[in-house]
Write a structure and sequence with these properties.
Blueprint lengths: L11 E2 L2 H10 L3 E3 L7 E3 L4 E15 L21 E11 L5 H8 L19 H7 L4 H11 L2 E3 L2 E3 L3 H18 L6 E2 H7 L6 H10 L1 E6 L4 E5 L1 H13 L6 E2 H11 L15 E4 L6 E4 L9 H11 L3 E2 H4 L13 H8 E5 L6 E5 L4
Parallel strand pairs: 1-5
Antiparallel strand pairs: 2-3, 3-4, 4-5, 6-7, 8-10, 9-10, 11-13, 12-13, 14-16, 15-16
Helix pairs in contact: 5-7, 6-7, 8-9
């Protein structure tokens, strides 16, 4: 444990691995607003901090050796600096990146005509580290997953509707130029669309929804990812209405949006859509995991308010983001749900423990 010889010191119980990490990095950061539970962050991991009490007295004394080889029968006097009954326990936990999308959306890029020189709601990496309960490595990974980009020292995301228009222009260009979505020329695309949208927006969208496959001295070629483009347009269509869609009609409209050679598949909508095959006709509605409460009890309460019973495969996509190191989805289900067998399908389903 880390020991302070001052009476105002605090005891922290450390695993050998974390102790070695702190010795190497020489520093760590405690993060959290007054209303939040504190977390401890190293350069690449986040740990929950829990206050524990013990009935045994923890005596802090300076210069006490733990070397068993030097133990002798000689009685000596040691000054006790303080007596403690409280210590802090650290456990690995998931980075709490939930606020990052909201913070970045306040300064989302929506076109050069809307840009101002003042900082406004723009944030730097330092600003984000001060507001988000995550290590720096986890924070940067989260920025990458959100498709954020650093512009003039500030981290920004592209406003959703603006990005939708930008991607649509790229796909229209593919059709106009008869380019294959499996080999899109990045530099030429940026140049051709420059009058409609900034070059960096075109490049960002191509790299977000594709992977570089080859490069010459004059050009870089991008292959669009079928699953990402399908998911992008599936979300665009579903989010355009608060109601349910006829599943057959939705699949037809969805397919029409896609470039030739891409096939719409419901697997692309994992964590985005709620499917009801018990209705006639079958229906689908928009339900994005990113819009749900992040506290587990509230998450389950919301899910069961939308649907009384959930099959295992249907509920898993809405829980995976809650799982931290050493945790499992099944443990979360066991804590918050009651399982029964559906008399029609003979499959296990989950419902709320709070229901009679």
């Amino acid at each position: 444990a880390v020991v302070s010889t001052q009476s105002t010191g605090r005891l922290i119980e450390l695993s050998p691995e974390l102790l070695n990490t702190l010795k190497e990095e020489k520093t760590f950061v405690l993060r959290g607003d007054p209303a939040e539970e504190a977390v401890l962050c190293t350069s690449d991991k986040t740990y929950s901090v829990r206050e524990c009490t013990t009935s045994n007295s923890l005596l802090l004394t300076p210069h006490l050796s733990s070397d068993t080889d030097s133990v002798s029968d000689v009685i000596s006097t040691r000054r006790v600096a303080s007596t403690n009954f409280v210590y802090y326990e650290l456990k690995p936990c998931r980075a709490k990146l939930d606020k990052m999308r909201e913070i970045l959306s306040r300064s989302a890029f929506s076109g050069e005509e809307n840009e101002t020189e003042d900082k406004g709601n723009k944030v730097t990496i330092t600003d984000l580290l001060g507001a988000i309960q995550a290590s720096e490595d986890e924070l940067k990974k989260g920025l990458d997953e959100l498709g954020a980009i650093e512009m003039n020292g500030y981290w920004r995301i592209i406003e959703h509707e603006y990005k939708t228009s930008a991607v649509s222009r790229i796909l229209s260009l593919l059709e106009e130029m008869t380019w294959s979505w499996e080999k899109v020329p990045l530099i030429e695309s940026c140049h051709t669309l420059a009058e409609l949208q900034p070059r960096f927006v075109t490049e960002l969208c191509l790299r977000l929804y594709g992977n570089q496959v080859s490069e010459t001295e004059e050009e870089v070629f991008i292959k669009l990812c079928e699953d990402k483009i399908c998911r992008f347009y599936g979300q665009y269509i579903l989010s355009s209405s608060a109601g349910k869609f006829n599943l057959t009609e939705f699949l037809a409209v969805w397919q029409d949006f896609l470039p030739d050679g891409m096939t719409a598949d419901l697997k692309h909508l994992r964590g985005l859509a709620l499917l009801n095959k018990s209705s006639d006709p079958h229906t689908i509605l928009y339900l994005a995991v990113s819009d749900l409460p992040v506290e587990p009890a509230r998450r389950f309460a919301y899910l069961f308010s939308r649907q009384e019973k959930w099959a295992h495969d249907d509920v898993i996509p809405y829980l995976e983001d809650l799982i931290g190191p050493g945790q499992t989805v099944n443990a979360l289900l066991l804590k918050h749900c009651r399982s029964t067998t559906d008399p029609k399908t003979k499959q296990k389903v989950y419902n709320s423990k709070s229901r009679n």
